[in-house]
Every structure is written in C-alpha cells, then in structure tokens.
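My current task is to audit a protein record that another person submitted. What it holds is a sequence and that sequence's fold in token form. Thanks in advance; the entry in question is below.
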Amino acid sequence: CFCYIELYEMGWNLKDGLRDCLVAAAPYGGPIALLKEHNRRSPSARPQLEIFSSSGLPLASFPGKSGVVKQLGWTVSDDLLCVQEDGTVLVYDLLGGFKRHFSMGNEVSQSQVLETKIFHSPYGTGVAILTGALRFTLATNIDDIKLRRLPEVPGLQGAPSCWAVLTQDRQSKVLLASGPHLFILDNTACTPVTPPGLSPQASSIVHMCVSFSYKYLALLTDSGHVWMGTSNLKEKLSEVDTKIKGSPKQMAWCRRPKSQQPSAVVMWDGLLLVVGECKETIQYHLEDDSILVPELDGVRIISGTHHELLQEVPGACEEIFKIASMAPGALLLEAHKEYEKESQKADEYLREIKEQSLLSEAVRQCVEAAGHEHEPETQKTLLRAASFGKCFLSNFPPEQFVSMCKDLRVLNAVRDYTVGIPLSHTQFKQMTVQVLIDRLVYRKLYLLAIEVCRYLKTPEYQGVSRVLKHWACYKVQQKEESDEVIAKAVSVKLADAAGISYSEIATKAYESGRTELAIKLLEFEPRSGEQVPLLLKMKKSPLALSKAIESGDTDLVYTVVMYLKNELNRGDFFMMLRNQPVALSLYKQRLEARIAHLQSAVDEYYKAKNEFSAKTTEDEMRLLRFQRKLEEEKDEQLVGFSLQDTMTTLLSVGLHKHAEQLYKDFRMPDKRFWWLKLKALAEKEDWEELEKFSKSKKSPIGYLPFVEVCIKHHNKYEARKYVAKVSPEQKVKAHLAVGDVEGAAEAAIERRNESEISTVLSRCSATTDHLLVERLNRAKATVPKK
C-alpha cells in the first residue's frame, strides 16, 4: 500500500519545466541544482547554474567555470559537485560560492568522461567515472582524494547498458551490465555474476538501481521484468513483469527502513510504475517531465510545477486509517472523536480497548502515526487522541509523546514553504538535530536555527553559541556596513553567549581584508593568548607585545619577543625593546640563563669525559673564546644541557660556524656531527645548504641518509640528487626510496644479488611492470646459488 503526498507547489518559474535540463536534488529534502541543456554543451561558455530550495525558491544563480558539464550532484554536507568532461570536479557551497576543485586523474582527462555517478559511502561522498576508454576510475571520498582505477572488463566493446556503484564490506564497487552479462569490479578483479532466478526471457539488462542503504538492488530487463534482490546478488526477493519493454528514464528503490516488502519505482515518459512483492503494479500518470530522488523512506518526485513524496504507507498509519480497522489506535481515535461530540460511544470504544489491555498500544500507535503525517491538522488529531488515551493510564511513560510533539513542531517549521526542507520524521531521526542545524546555518537561516536550538534545549556550545559564531563570521564579511557598526552588532549579539572565541571571528574578518575590524573584535576577546597570534599574523607587532605584557604571562611575552627578533632587523628589534622595559628585562634574564646553561653543559662534558689534563688550559681558552662569540651574538635561543643538545640547537638556529667551532674544539666524532647537521638542515628544509654540505667533503656516513632524510620530509626531487653518490651495496634501497623501480632493478641485476632482486620484484606491479618482472626473474635464475 503506497501513498502519494504533495509537498509543495514549486515556486520557480520554468518556462519549459524540467525538459532539457540537467537536475540534481540532494537527499533528506535538500536543495535542487539545475542547468539548462543549452548551457552545458559549449566547452568555452560559462554555464549558468541555479540552486533552489525543495519548494522551488531561488537560493543562488551564478556562472560556473567554462567547460562541458557531464553531471551535477550533492555531497553529504550539501556542497554542489559539478563534473566536467575533462574530469575536473568543481565544488560550490549551497549559495554558489566556489570552494575548490580537483581532478579525477590524467587518464580521465585524456580519455574524457563518458558517464559519471556521485554516490555516498561510509567514508563520505564519492565520484565514479566511466571514461571514453571504457575504464572506471573511483574516488571514494572527495575530502581525501585517493583515485582507484578499476580492472578492465573483458570483451567490453562499447558503453555498458547500465551501471551502478555498490558499497559492500566498507568497499565501493561497480556493478555493470553488458548485454545479458553482469560484472562486479573491485580493486583487484572483474568478476562475472548471475542474479538468482532472473527471468530467462531477458536478453539484456537495461536499467538498475541500488537502495538508499546499498543493501538491495533492482534490475530491469529488456523483456520488461523487474528483478529485486540483495545487492550481493545472493538472494532474490521478487520479480515482476511490467509488460512495458521500452527503456525507462529513471528507476529508484522505494522501501521503508524496517519494511519486509521490496518495492521499486520505474519512470517512463508520462508514466510512473510501482512494482513490489506481488505481481500487481500501481500506475501513476505524470503530466510534466519529472525526476526521481531516492530517500531513506520513499521517493521524491519533482516536476516543473509540483514536488511530491511517494512512499509505502507506514504501518501505524495503515492500522489506524484503513477502512473498518479494529486496531487499538483506530478505536482510540474514534473514541476521542466521540468524546469531542460528547457522545457516550467514547466510553464504549475505550472499554473495548481496555478489555483487550491494549490502551498503551493504542496511544503508541497514535503517537507514531502522528510522526509520519505531513498535515499539521492530522498530526494534532492523532496527538490529541493519544493525550486522551494517556489520561486513562497510570504508568504510561510520557517521553515518547513529549519527544514527538517537539519533533513535529521542528519539522513543521523546516517544512514551511519559505524554508523548503521537507524532512520526514524517519529522515529527521536518521539525520540528527546537529545536522539539521548545520543545514539551516548553510542557508543563513540563523534565527530559525537558534529557535530550534532553544526549543530542543540543545547544549549551548553545540547549539546557540555555534550558530551565533557562524552568524558573526558571515556578518564580518559584509561590505555594506562600517567596521564600527559591525563590531558593535557582533558584541551585542554575542554578549551572553558562552564559549565563543572572538579571535576566530576576527580571523575571518582579517581574511576578508578588514584588518581594522579584526582589531576591534579582538578587544572583546578576554584571553590574551588568543589575541596575540592573530595580531602577529596581521603584522601588528607593537600591539601584540603590549597585549602579551598586559596578560602577565611571561612565556607569552617571550614568544612575542622571539617572533619579533626573527621578523625585525637588529636595530628595530632593540628599539622596540627599549620602549617596553618589561620585555627588555625578560629578554636579558633569558639570555643570561641560556649562557649559564651553556657553561654548565661544558662543565658536565669535561667531568663526564674526565679530560682535565695537561691541555686543560688550552681547552679552557677555546671554551672562553667560544663563549665570547655567543655573548657577542646575544643568541638567546641557545639551550643546552649536553654537548649534543648544544650542537643540535646551534645547527637548528643556523649558527653553523659556531657549531663547526664546537665540533673542532671538543673533538666530536665525524659521524655524529654529520648526522646532527644532516637532520638539522632537513628539519629547516634548507635544501640548498644541505647540498653544499654534501659536497664539502666525502661523507663519513655515506649518502643513503641524505636520500632517506629528504624522503622523510616529502621531497623526492632533492632525494634524487644523492642517489648517484650512494655506495653500490645501498643503491637498490636508494632507488626504491625515491620510487625508481627501474633504477633499483638495474642496480640489483648488476650486483647479481638474489635478495635485492626479490626486494625489487615485491615492489613491481604484475599488470604495469610485466616486462620488468620478466627481466628480473631471468636475472634471478642466473644468480649462482650459495
């Protein structure tokens, strides 16, 4: 049993409806993106994209980037994805603001996009591409792009008749149909599969769809049969003959989460067909071009004039409203109606329910049915009946009733035509309150979001404060109002809000080019530790130093002083310190402490090594000479409690001459010094100085450490410079470290080392490096056995 619910009369004014339009609607009552056909085919023209709410009210209209658009889709966070023919994916926010772009790889760019699907997986939003070369490329999560090229389908001569993305065992796969054959593509293999019990009359599969949860699958054959079963193709649930053999425009799964009845919706021009477990079908005639939007508990149908929801009638609603129903909920509803008429029949109905001890069940049915209804008057009727029944129960828990009343008030508010989020109660519970608040914030519906938070008593840091912070970040980007007006408005609105960081709002103002506004907002930030970093970033050094001193936090003051020392020239630095006696005094104290640490470190070194000998006087002279240099440099960063710590610190702050002097004066082993300097230069990413160091003389530690330290800091370009210098016995390891498998193979073959050849073989791909694998195996066979 299915019901057809009208959600909205669409507010847009589309001259030709949805004809010749590329349309994408987000699930959970999300927004609708629309692109006219004549706007998407020109490679040079900029397509005009339009975004509407589910009620058809405009949210944004903007020109996209130039290029042929192949597909539109939505992410789980309501960002719009625009897939272009060259494999570029553009990401826009809900109101049309460009966020970023990414590519689906060189192969897609060269072969061009033939078809694409945007899907949701446990990892996030994914994109699947079928290229002109008939190969599939997947990105399972667009927020962490890892492209996967799926195996080739044997014997595939043209585009598959249909395909879909499946999510099974936390892995995304592609199911495709080529004629009568079905294949599943995963990371490693292309596996032919056969749906159990598929009609023998079928010679090809022309359409397929996956359920919202990816657990079920529906296949439409050229003979007009719809096969429904589990998505792992192990179990058949139903098969129905539609008696229509034409290829449909769209097909979608339509099943409630806890329903036992499989059902799918197939749409042709002007006709919508619902097929289920029984052999009968339900037909609906469509007056306009429409699209189907699969939902958790049904299918939304959007046309140029209307927006409707088709779903299986919820069990509680069916029990109460079916003709001549004797269900407890139906009797309680009748009892309440008679009570309002002041009829004694109300007592008769109540007695009948009580005699069966089903009054609690009757109340529960009415509450549940109210949640599934979209009409407020029907909701009220059912809730009044439930409230009436509760009066005759002494121990009925009120939580379910109270919670449903709150949920319905929120749902009715967001379903309003001006908001246009037609959530069902099932979807709302799956989505959670936090996500709904986020969606309202994305639409800039801050007042409604705050009212929802307050009504549902959401914790302030998750609710009102979070919404106000988003509002303030949006407010400071507005160019129409002056800095003073915005700063005052923000301070007034946020005065009583808990846990809001003004520094985050000030940062947004600074990023929008409003430095003075950012400074004004920082005045409201009570934590100096939050003020100072942004002031330094804005190059407001004197103000940052003053704020740090006002805080009384010596560590914060010292952090600012060190930042200024690195940013300013020597003269300006000491001039600023003279104007800040507190900072100057602290700087002197730290400087003296560092020198004292150095003296203590050298004393400990002598004691540990027991090197006081006839040369003590000469060594002491070296130490005094070195200390004098440090005092002249006034380098307060020198921290050391051992000789090695001191050396590391000198290298890390760039005092290479001092480090080398210490190395010579105290006879540090060559290998230790080279290791320390190598690590220090790599930490600083001073690649030019590292190259000079490598050429200064022959390295006592070899050159493999140079390769490894560059790779550790993600710089293969620099690492390759040192591969040629690596000793022969380490050549294979060096080549593999920089990803040069062929070079590693050459080195292993030249050395005729079986272990090294095996190591290289383990890094080769059987599909892309088969020639190299053969060569290595031949070489391995000629290696003499030990």
Q: What stands out?
A: Confidence is low (pLDDT under 50) at residues 608-616, 630-642. Residues 708 and 714 are 10 Å apart (CA to CA). The longest helix spans residues 581-609.
